[in-house]
Amino acid sequence: MPSWLSNQIMRAFIKRDRRQIRLLNDCWFFYYSRRNSHSDTSSLQ
Fold this sequence. Notes:
Blueprint: H1 3-15, H2 18-44
Organism: Paenibacillus puldeungensis
Protein name: Cortex morphogenetic protein CmpA
InterPro entries: CmpA
């Protein structure tokens, strides 16, 4: 996880901002899935 994203999530949890937590969680899953799917396709070539 990138450090900037980790810091944002920590701040959202401290502030108990559920909307921000959900948004950042979606960003993380999007980032993680893109990264994994990209590495999977590169290993097939």
